[in-house]
Design a protein that fits this description.
With 372 residues, this protein is α+β, with helices and mostly antiparallel strands. The protein is built from eight helices and 20 strands. Keywords: Signal.
Length: 372
């Protein structure tokens, strides 16, 4: 073989090899990227394929876009743990290590953290709240919310709680400025505590909706019926009520008993009764407290408080606890071993009858309920 012939043969051989190398990737291979041993991903024609010990799943379309916006597999949502689930032709979701991405006509949004847990506990996308219609909105370091088709989930220091679009309480809360408004974030879910009557506790107040006139048994004096109860209203969550909880637990600790946990729903029930006593100017035990669920016993009282800047809130709360501890029946309720929870209500109003109508004095109406 001459040099020229050998060179032509070598060139032909190299060209053939180069053609082979160029054709193989185009026909059968794609880029693969590894985040950790056993955890990798590769782009596909319409999304991204992720492989992990949980399996291999494709994330495609708008869900892929939202997932990548949250950092992809190494971001806040992590790797997918299931394939996309289509609930209707327009509604679908995909579950990841640390959250879920939902896609619907309202848009594609991630639900993460405490909001995700609360949303799943209420049935997820097919549950009471439905699909998300906004991303999570952070209003403060420890306060955020996310809107859904049929309500809003608020996440704060006390947990994550819902307001439902079908409820009058949600309308009341929205009218008062929502989470950044007068009453703050919810600290419990809405509760139907009696037929036709609902409540929900918030950071700075309690919302009530009462229908069917909130009728109560005939054991209540006629004055009780003077309370307008067919409608919606707010009552305040007061500092004095929290102080009574603290002082009550101090008495229990001094007597070798466990402290009671304040239950916001029980405090709402107690505040409602204090409001009814204040509105009727009548001291009376709530004939329905045992029917409200989880309530074992109740203490009530009224006490005079000075009006205006000279009012001593701590002194008023301490006076109430001293009065109860000085009465054998009320003391027995405070020092009972069975209860694990407490609720307290405190409402201050002028009294036309008690105290002779002294313009310098208001009357505080206090209620304690104990339960489990």
């Amino acid at each position: 073989m001459t040099w020229r012939t050998w060179r032509r043969s070598l060139a032909a051989l190299v060209g053939t090899a180069l053609v082979a190398v160029a054709l193989v990737p185009a026909a059968s291979a794609r880029a693969q990227f590894w985040d950790a041993p056993g955890w990798g991903w590769s782009p596909t024609a319409n999304g991204t394929e992720y492989s992990s010990p949980r399996g291999t799943f494709t994330v495609a379309g708008p869900i892929d876009s939202v997932h990548r916006a949250h950092g992809g597999g190494t971001g806040s949502l992590g790797y997918p743990v299931a394939a996309r689930n289509s609930q209707t032709t327009q509604h679908g979701y995909q579950t990841f290590e640390r959250g879920v991405i939902y896609s619907s006509p309202a848009g594609t949004f991630a639900v993460r953290g405490g909001v995700d847990g609360a949303h799943r506990a209420r049935g997820g996308g097919s549950g009471a709240l439905g699909y998300p219609r906004t991303a999570e909105v952070r209003e403060a370091a420890s306060h955020s919310y996310q809107a859904f088709e049929r309500g809003v989930l608020y996440s704060g220091p006390s947990g994550t709680w819902a307001t439902l679009s079908s409820s009058s309480i949600t309308s009341m809360h929205r009218a008062a400025g929502g989470g950044r408004g007068t009453h703050g974030y919810p600290i419990g879910d809405e509760v139907q505590f009696l037929p036709g009557q609902w409540l929900q506790p918030f950071e700075r107040g309690y919302a009530f909706v009462e229908t069917n006139q909130g009728r109560i048994p005939e054991t209540c004096p006629a004055e009780c019926y003077a309370v307008p109860s067919n409608g919606s209203y707010w009552l305040p969550r007061t500092w004095e009520a929290s102080e009574i909880v603290r002082l009550t637990n101090a008495e229990r600790t001094a007597n070798g008993l466990a402290s009671l946990r304040e239950n916001p729903v029980k405090s709402a029930l107690a505040t409602r009764w204090s409001g009814k006593m204040a509105a009727t100017d009548l001291l009376w035990h709530n004939p329905q407290f045992a029917a409200s669920g989880g309530v074992m016993s109740e203490n009530v009282l009224y006490t005079s408080v000075r009006r205006g800047a000279s009012y001593d809130a701590a002194g008023g709360a301490a006076s109430a606890v001293r009065s109860w501890m000085g009465s054998s029946g009320h003391r027995a309720n405070i020092l009972r071993a069975g209860p694990t929870e407490i609720g307290v209500g405190w409402i201050v109003r002028p009294s036309p009858r008690i105290g002779g109508g002294d313009h310098r004095t208001d009357i505080a109406w206090a209620t304690q309920v104990f339960g489990y």
